[in-house]
Each structure stands twice: as structure tokens, then as C-alpha cells.
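Hi there, hope your week has been kind to you so far. Thanks so much in advance, here it is:
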Amino acid sequence: MTETIESAARDDDRRPPLEARRRPRVHRAWIVAAVTFVTIIGGAAFNSLPGLLIDPLHTEFRWSRGEIGLAVSIDMALYGLTAPFAAALMDRFGIRRVVAAALTMVAAGALASVWMTASWQLMIYWGLLVGLGTGSMAMAFAATVTNRWFVARRGLVTGILTAAGASGQLVFLPLCAWIVDEHGWRPASVTVALAALVVVPFVCRLMRDHPADVGLAPYGGAYVAKPAPARGAARRTVKVLFKAARTGPFWLLAGTFAICGASTNGLIRTHFVPSAHDHGMPITAAASLLAVIGIFDVIGTIFSGWLTDRFDARRLLAVYYALRGISLLFLPMLMGPDVRPPMVFFIVFYGLDWVATVPPTLALCREQYGEDSAIVFGWVLASHQVGAAVVAFLGGVARDVFGSYDVVWYASGALCAVAALMSLVIRRVRASSAAVPSG
């Protein structure tokens, strides 16, 4: 009799709770994904500012573009280096707590910058505080949500969440450009701080750390009990890095993603507006073009997620990087005081390709590294931001030295060709031996 009771108890432990056996009309995973989307938009608001503020800060404080670029590069580097630790902290303390704290940190840095008077303060407020905050809810955040809440449609959801950053750019770039032009850079900084704070209540109210918290199975999968909080988050993060670093695919993925960051966040997002302004284009017009990139980025990234569920991720990456490199080589010839059709074509083309690289890169991380894929992707993202940081700084230095950005456009185009070749030599993992299916 005792054995029968113990057997029944074991069966109950393996069986999902009653709530998990009831299928809601709209799976909670989609609500969590929606909150994640809005959160990334709120966090991305500050990323709209650096390119708009280079000229105003240079004019008001007489700081060199290299100094301002250094602050932006610190922000981007910390954004990337924080991401893998944030993924592990989410395992330890939960998604909701980490993200709410990160949004608050971003708001604090943005507000503090209003009173700065020295370039070192710019590096503390923009570089340190905002870098740590945005890094804690970077693409590794999207990867963690996707891995926990979705089994089916992972590629599509990854594309949608990745597009959230572009959506934030689409919303805030024209607004911030208008505010900077009409009222100065300080009100624009306050605006993005408030945008980050507004999102906090949504995270606290609607975000959940794991499907088991609400008695559900992940979307398209079987019920899985919530694991115990993972202790030693920092130690685990470093351990995963050393383990992944012994494999060739990690370095290829990190190298290609570093070039991705260099040619997007470090180059276009930071230096496109001041470069266009050098050619006589008004700041508001240049910022509007950058916002249009955000429109097509959303389309391209979601479509890339759909393609990633169906085609070889390596070949997709090779095509994306090759096309990006070709477009950058033509950009110096398109610059001018007016917005002409060739420039519009570049903007549309580049927008479709902007972060289309993320879904296949994340799929390859998942295929290669299984349960550790979110943390591995965090380290790959770190390389993305280090690449962005290097070009954000060197781009400003190049402008100071050569008087134009042309050499930076050409060098970035050549790097994209290298990334295309690197993508093709990443080895595949057979589906039967992969730790976690790619979607």
C-alpha cells in the first residue's frame, strides 16, 4: 500500500499542475513576448541619442568627437560585456527583477547627464550607467525569454523581439531629433529617461520568469518544472565562456557578430547623422532617414526569423553580410544635402539587413551549445558591442583626422566581406546530436 502511494506521488510530481492542463485562448508566452518587446523599445530609446548629440555636445562643451565617441564606445562595450552576466543573473534572480533594475539604471544615467559639465561625467553617465543598464536587457534578454517560453516559432519570435530595438529607434529618433533641434539636447535626454521609467510597471505586473510560474507548458512544447535558482551566476557565466571558447564555431560566431556591430551600431547609428550633416543635410532629415532604417529593420528581422526556421543559418548570414558590405562601399557617393532616390534605396536596403543577422546567429548558438546557448549568445553579443565600440571611437577619430568619414565606410564594407566568408565555414551540428532543437 505504501509503495502504491509513493508511486502515485512520483507520478503527480511528473505531471503538470491543473492550470497547465487547461489551454488558455491566448498562450501566456505571447503576453510575455509582448512585454519583452515593449521593454526593449523602452531600453532602446537611449540608443537613439548618441548620433544626435555629437554635434550639440561638441558645440556646447568643445569636446572633440573622439572624446564623445569614447563615451559612446564605453556604453556599447559595457552593453555587450554585461549581457552574458545578465543572462546568468536572470537564471539566479529572475527576469522581472533584473529587467526592472536595468530600466531604472538607464533612467538614472539619462537624467544625470542633464547636469554634466565635464567629459568624464559623460563617460560615467552615458558610458557606465546606461551601458550596464541597457546591457542587462539586451538581446540576451530576448534569447532567455525565447528559450524559456517557446519551443515552436523560436526563429519568428527571435526576429520579432530583435526588431523591438529598431522599433524604439523608429519611435524615438524623429522625436528626439525634433526636440534637440527645437529645445536642445537636455530635454531629449529627459524624454528617454521617462520612456525607460514608464516601462517598469509593465514589467513588474505582467512579466513572468518561467511558464511553470503560471502552470503552463512553453508554447509548442511539453510542461517542464521550473528549475531551482542557479547560484554562482558570475562563475557559471565565465565557465560557459571558457567551455565555448574551446570550440571553433564560437570564435567564428563572435568574429562575424563583432563585424555586425561595427557596421551597424558603431558605424551607422553613431556616425550616419553627423556624416550626413557634414554634407549639408539637416539633422532632422538625417535622423528621419535613420528612423526609416528602423521601419525596414522590423520587416527584415521578422522575415529573417521566418527564413531561419526553414533554411541553413550559415548561408543566410553569408548573404546578409555580403549585401551589407556592398551597400557600404556605395554610401560615400550617395551623401549630399538633399534626400535623393539613391539614398532612399540605400536606407531601405540597409534597413532590411540591419539586424537580420540575429535570428540565424542565435539559431546557430542554440544548435551548437544547447542549454547554455543564451549565455553563449550573450558572449557573442559582447563581441558585437566591442566591435561597435571600436568603430564608434575610431569613427570619431577618423573624422577629426581626415575631415570625413569616407575611410570608415570603405573599411567597414571590406570587413563585411570577411564576415560573409567566416559564416560559411561554421560547422553544422546534426539534428540528432544537437542538444536543443533550433526551433
About this structure: The chain has a mean pLDDT of 80. The chain is about 75% helix and 0% strand.
